[in-house]
C-alpha cells in the first residue's frame, strides 16, 4: 500500500453523523485506500463499533468521561471541542505519519470547521462533509447570503428551490424566537471558511435533489456522495456481522428479524424517531393509540428515556404479538425486510434517505431542525409518502396517525407512492454503482488526492 493512500474521516459525535461518514469511509476502503474513522474517545469507549474495513482512531472533544452531557450547553461543548479537538487531531496526524501512514485527505464534518485549519497546517487536502440534504444546505446558504429575513413569516421563493412555506423550512427559521440559537449558529457556521477547503461533499444522491445540487455545484463545487448506505442493502443481500456498522445503542438484531420473519410482506409499520427526538407524553400516547387503531403490526423504536411515556398497559397489551417495542433497532435491516410496508419517521435526513433508498413509503412526523423540509420533499417532491397535519399547539392526534398510515399503505395513492419509492430506490442504487453519480465523484477524489489509481 502506498504511503499516500490514507484518508481520515472526522465525524461529529452523534449517530446521524457517524453513520454516513463510516459508510463513506467504506467506499474509499473498497477502492483499496486506508480509511480511518476518528470519532471522540468517549464515543469509542461507549459505542459498539463494528466498522469492518474502516480503521478506528479517536480524538478528544474535551469531555472524555461523559461526552456532550458533561458540557451543559451546546456552545460550551463546541468551544471545548474546538480546543481539545484541534490539539488531539494534530497529535493523531503526527502519530499516523510517524507510523508510516501519513494522511492525504481529511474529510471532516462541516459542524467542525476548525478541523480544516488543522489539516491545512499539515499540508493535507481537506473536504468538508455536509451531513444534511442539499436542499437544507442551500436554504442555509441563502440565509447566510442575506436572502432570507428571519424569522420567516411568509412563503419564500429562492434560487434553486421550490416555493417553500414557513412550515416547510428548517425549524430554526420560522420560529419567532429561535429556541436553539446555538444550533442555528452551528448550522450556519458550516459554511464558514468553505472557500478554504478543497472539496465540499454532500450526503445526498444528485438525482434526488437535482436543481439544489446543481446550484450548490455552481456555487461551491459541491459533490454528492450518497446514499451512504452499504451497497448490500441496496442489492437485497443479507449483511455479515461486520456490516452492522456503528451503533451507539445495542440493537437486538435476532429478535427484530425473527419477529419480522413472522409477518406477511408489506404488512408492518416501522416507527422510529431517530437517536435524539423526544416526544411529549401526550404525543407518545396519541402515537401509541394511533398505531393500535390501524390494526396493523408495528415495530416501534422507543429509546429507553422515552419508555416511561408509553401509556400504562400499552406495552403489555400490544408489545409482543401485534407490536414489537424495542429500545433500538438495526434500522437498515428492518427497512430492507420484505415485511415492512411503511416507515413512520421523524424525517431525520439519514432515515429519510434510508427509507427512499430501500423503497419504503414514508409517513413524516417531523419534529425540528431539518426534518420539516425533508418531510415536505417526501410528500411533494419525491411523492413517496405523506406528512402529518398538526393541531393548533402542535399535537398530532391518533386519528391523524391512523389516517396517514392507511393512506400510505392502502389509500388511493398508495400504489403510486410505492411505484415512486421503487423508482427512487433504483436511482439511489445506480448512484453508487460503477459510473454512478456518487461513485464517479468518489473515484474523482481518489484520482485527484491519492496516488492510488481509482
Ligand atoms: N437508527 C438505527 N436504529 C434505530 C434508530 C435509528 O440504527 O432504532 C439509525 C438510522 O438508521 C440512521 C440514524 O440512526 O442512520 C439516525 O439518523 P437520522 O439522521 O435519521 O436521525 P437523528 O438521529 O440524527 O435525529
Task: Determine the N-to-C terminus distance.
Answer: 14 Å
- Shape label: globular
Return the structural class: alpha/beta
**Main β-sheet: number of strands, strand sense, barrel status?**
7 strands, parallel
Averaged pLDDT: 93
The percentage of residues in β strands lies in 5-15%
- Total E-strand runs: 15
Pick out the low-confidence regions: none
Rg on CA atoms, Å: 21 Å
What is the spatial order of strands in the main beta sheet? 4-2-1-5-6-7-8
Pfam families: UDPGT
GO biological process, one term: response to toxic substance
Family: Belongs to the UDP-glycosyltransferase family.
Enzyme class: transferase
Secondary-structure map:
Blueprint: E1 6-10, H1 15-30, E2 34-37, H2 41-46, E3 48-50, E4 55-56, H3 74-98, E5 103-109, H4 114-121, E6 125-130, H5 134-144, H6 181-189, E7 199-202, H7 210-220, E8 223-224, H8 231-234, E9 245-247, H9 253-261, E10 268-272, H10 281-294, E11 298-301, H11 314-318, E12 323-326, H12 331-336, E13 340-345, H13 349-357, E14 362-364, H14 371-381, E15 385-387, H15 398-410, H16 414-431, H17 437-449
Parallel strand pairs: 1-2, 1-5, 2-4, 5-6, 6-7, 7-8, 10-11, 10-13, 11-12, 13-14, 14-15
Antiparallel strand pairs: 3-9
The structure holds uridine-5'-diphosphate (UDP).
